[in-house]
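Example record used in the benchmark description.
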Amino acid sequence: MDSEARRKALAERLRQAEGPLSAAALARELSVSRQIIVGDVALLRAGGLDITATPRGYLLPRPPAGVKCTFACRHRAEQMGEELNAIVDQGCTVLDVIVEHPIYGQLTGPLRLSNRYDVAQFVARCEEESAAPLSQLTEGVHLHTVLCPDQGAADRVWEVLEKLDLLYR
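Model output (structure tokens):
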């Protein structure tokens, strides 16, 4: 097997794996040294494959389970914590915030907030750094991409944001 075919086989094996695969195990399967596998993984990563190295071996991240939704919101800066807590309280994760800037176009800030502790840390860091939220660039108008465990949780987010008058209409 040539090196290109081996890397294709390695990538396919990682796609099919239920859990992490050690370099030693992959080396045995593909009849090469562990060092060859390490090099192949580096080349696959350089080619754009998102391979994660864990203490137990290599794996490809799985897409998160659940329902991904986008909510259009508008509020004052001091309401940011209330908005984010309202979302995470429904069992959802706030993946990011997106604003449409008149010069730069779409600006996205990753958040990954899953609980009240995450929200408190984020709000505290904004205050410590005197950092204004991205939504201040757009008079409070912004989008959130939210990952919910199911449609019921997404519906609850909609209802609570509506009740708090934080949805943009």
